[in-house]
């Protein structure tokens, strides 16, 4: 009986050790930050503040979930902000169609950019950081050229519902995020695709030798990342009822990467932690809102987020 208890306790200890240290600390940090805002930030629990916070978290988390899959394969995608801008501009060209064509058409166009990223990285062998950096510059440039650098405003109630609407008092973007996160989580946990992503991140050479089509899986994760970035772009554009090719998605790469590493996914690749990433996005959103609501320059929050990324990577290396 004693031996059985020892085995059970050892099993529980091993499972606890498998949880990244950042995931154990993350909920505590979020709670402490909320408590700080309760006492320091005026109107933190105002409806408009909470609504804006949820919208910010939703767009960041959608981009970060796609980034999680890319990082889990040992890659990186710096083009997600530019793809958000492309989604914003593309949607304005489809305003005269019905909402389904607008959404699906925009997602398809942006998927092609992800397909291009994935093809160059997987089949030609260009480093992910180089390829996606080039796409970040080119994509933003394309979006600005298509709009001549102007803000394109519009009025389309069906489209605006995506970013402004709610169902049962729950913001529609939050509902989208929940279903996307749940779907990706189930795919990662229970399908061969998820196991292949983890295997490639753990050891790409071994995965290739074991018969996994590494190139195809990488191609798929960059396509997924682009589609989710496009979805975030649609939410942001519909919320503003305007497409701003210069500002939309600007520096969201930083928030997305921070959310991923804080959520427990290793920058070197391996197991993707989807819900950890969502909580990481919550932390990034709270930091942004805390700075804005207390009239602290937003640029200061970028420094904090950069420090968080470095700290999370340090703990990852220390606990490997």
From TrEMBL:
Pfam families: BPD_transp_2. The chain crosses the membrane at residues 21-39, 51-71, 78-95, 101-121, 167-188, 219-242, 248-266, 273-292, 298-315. Its main location: membrane. It is found in: Cell membrane. The keyword Cell inner membrane does not apply. It comes from the Bacteria. Coiled coil: none annotated. Keywords: Cell membrane, Membrane, Transmembrane, Transmembrane helix. It is a multi-pass membrane protein. One of its GO terms (molecular function) is transmembrane transporter activity. GO terms for cellular component: plasma membrane. This is ABC transporter permease.
